Amino acid sequence: MERGKMAELESLETAAEHERILREIESTDTACIGPTLRSVYDGEEHGRFMEKLEARIRNHDREIEKMCNFHYQGFVDSITELLKVRGEAQKLKNQVTDTNRKLQNEGKELIIAMEELKQCRLQQRNISATVDKLTLCLPVLEMYSKLREQMKSKRHYPALKTLEHLEHTYLPQVSHYRFCKIMVDNIPKLREEIKEVSMSDLKDFLESIRKHSDKIGETAMKQAQQQRNLDNIVSQHPRISGGKKSKKEVCASSDLEVKNTSPMSEQDSGILDVEDEDEDEEVPGAQDLVDFSPVYRCLHIYSVLDARETFENYYRKQRRKQARLVLQPPSNMHETLDGYRKYFNQIVGFFVVEDHILHTTQGLVNRAYIDELWEMALSKTIAALRTHSSYCSDPSLVLDLKNLIVLFADTLQGYGFPVNQLFDMLLEIQDQYSETLLKKWSGVFRNILDSDNYSPIPVTNEEVYKKIVGQFPFQDAELEKQPFPKKFPFSEFVPKVYNQIKEFIYACLKFSEDLHLSSTEVDDMIRKSTNLLLTRTLSNCLQNVIKRKNVGLTELVQIIINTTHLEKSCKFLEEFITNITNVLPETVHTTKLYGTTTFKDARHAAEEEIYTNLNQKIDQFLQLADYDWMAMEPGSRASDYLVDLIGFLRSTFAVFTHLPGDVDVHSTMSGKVAQTACMSACKHLSTSLMQLLLEAEVRQLTLGALQQFNLDVEECEQFARSGPVPGFQGDTLQLAFIDLRQLLDLFIQWDWSTYLADYGQPTCKYLRVNPTTALILLEKMRDTSRKNNVFAQFRKNERDKQKLIDTVAKQLRSLINSHHS
């Protein structure tokens, strides 16, 4: 029962499930029906479901059939009406087709016209677009063409400006065009081309400046010379530096105008515009000779291109190289002044250009760079001048060189360069100048002394007298009172030498001009140089004249007179120096002239030379002596050579009467010279005769020879007694022969007993006879007695005399030995 109920319940559940599935199938989309059908196949009631499905289908078919039967008549009517509409539609289609054909036929021309209109509109649009594009491109092309034209005409700075506008303003508007890309690619190349061309212009400028530095420097130095001349005109006023400053300000203002206009100029002017100016025309400024626009343009171009530092380094490097070339002096510079002038002109030209660049550009060169170059230039210039000036032996050239150096220093000082070292070097050149002057004046003095006749200057009229007195400070009241013709005591070399000393002083003074030295320094320089002239140059010339072989006693006497007058003129030279330097001789540091010493030394040398010459002449006469030392009897008079010698001495000492006779220091000194010369001659003659008598070659002599010798000594004594030179007191001059006289008297009188008895006593008659001398002479006479056969008949007397001689000789030896002990 329960099983039946269970089966009935299952059957009901299955039926309900099948009903649900059928409803799902009816209501569900066919795409999602798969799971529903799977649930049917998964169950066990498949057959029953199929039966229910068939029943449901048949049920729906019956409903459809009922519905169709209900609406069938309306459907038939609709079909009938549709068939009617189809016929009308066919007619309408035919009419539309016909109308379309007619419309097509009628619209062909319109279509052709419309196509033509379309093409025209397209062309018009293209043309308008093209015009718009060309409007944008034409300024670019025009600017590029302008750039090329500027490049071709070498207007590089405007070209660079055009290039900037082209790059930053025009090309960005048309950057998508291919030709623009080509232009953009060419812009760096154009910049490099502008840099290279502008650098080429700069190189040309530098080369031209190097070649024309000489002219630039010459112009600058002419300006400095004009300024100095102007200063000299107003020299009574304090020296004002405003003139140079104003000149420099004018240069600076002119330079600023050049700076403001040159870089923007459309046409490049020449590098150096130099015209031949007449001497009467004003000297143009150095800045007026040079066109600096290439430097300015190149500087601006490199600045715009952010390469200013490169440009500055290149410019400074090249100018340093040029400076080294300029500062290298030519090897033959010292030969002419033009060599020095060209050297200075080049240096001045170089620094004038650099000074101009310094003041007209901002930072291309700076003061440190200029100072560095100037220090190098100063050291090299001073070294070159020291070397080359040392070769110069012409004082005129040295003086001209000094003036040129001063002008060179003043010129550069006007541009602000320190030049103290140049003036210090000029003080060194001053010493060299003094040496060259001394050499020149040495030749002048030699010519004067060689050409002088060493005779008093004759004067025939008042005009000549005043002329000589005007040349030489000489005053003599006695000479002025004498009638014409008359003579000055000195020869022509006195006024000539005096004037040449003054000329030397003037020459020294010329060198001190413009050296900015004080009066004391100038005075000291002149006095020192003049002292060298007197103590070294003139002294040597006088000494050489005095020591010449062919100089005569007359010349020596005249030299003594001349040097005496020159010595007295030294005080006038002192006054002359004081007048031209305005430094009083009482000043503490004033150097004194040593002229007095110079002329005294020369006079003493002349005196010594007189004594020496006299003695040499005496020796020459004595060489003519030819004594017969074996003569038995003397001659009737003195020997011929001695007579001639005495005659020579008389005529010689007569020359001393030309010495001035005024009773003053001069006269006293000249008289002493004559007396000393006479005494020296007599002593030398006495000594020489004694040596002649005692010389070893004379081994034997006779009494007769001794008596002849005595006659010669008596002639000498007669000469001494005659007073050949006034001023000797009593027998002073005869005392020169006292040794000979006593010796001869001893032998001729044979007064040995007196000699031996009184020997050593102050009152001895033969005090001047030396026992050694007496023994030598006695030995020569004893040898003669031994070998002489003339006295053979007087053999006993001869033997007695020989014994006496031996006895005397023995006693003389005893005296000599006792004297030595």
Helix content: over 70%
Count of beta strands: 2
Q: Any idea what the radius of gyration is? A: 70 Å
Question: H/E series, N to C?
Answer: HHHHHHHHHHHHEHHEHHHHHHHHHHHH
Mean pLDDT, all residues: 79
The largest β sheet comes out as: 2 strands, antiparallel
How many helical elements?
26
The poorly predicted ranges are 238-281, 660-669, 789-794
Termini separation (Å)? 212 Å
Which strand order do you get reading across the main beta sheet? 1-2
Structural category: mainly alpha
What sort of overall outline do the alpha carbons produce when their principal axes are compared?
Answer: rod-shaped
Biased composition (Polar residues): 259-268
Domain Exocyst complex component EXOC6/Sec15 N-terminal: 52-221
Keywords: Coiled coil, Exocytosis, Transport
Protein name: Exocyst complex component
Question: Helix and strand layout, with pairings?
Answer:
Elements: H1 2-27, H2 34-42, H3 46-152, H4 156-170, H5 178-233, H6 242-261, H7 293-304, H8 308-326, H9 337-360, H10 367-389, H11 395-414, H12 420-451, E1 458-459, H13 462-471, H14 477-481, E2 486-487, H15 493-512, H16 519-547, H17 553-568, H18 570-581, H19 595-622, H20 640-655, H21 665-694, H22 703-721, H23 738-749, H24 752-758, H25 771-787, H26 795-820
Antiparallel strand pairs: 1-2
Helix pairs in contact: 1-3, 3-4, 4-5, 5-7, 5-9, 5-11, 7-8, 9-10, 9-11, 10-12, 11-12, 12-15, 12-16, 15-16, 16-19, 17-19, 19-20, 19-21, 20-22, 22-23, 25-26
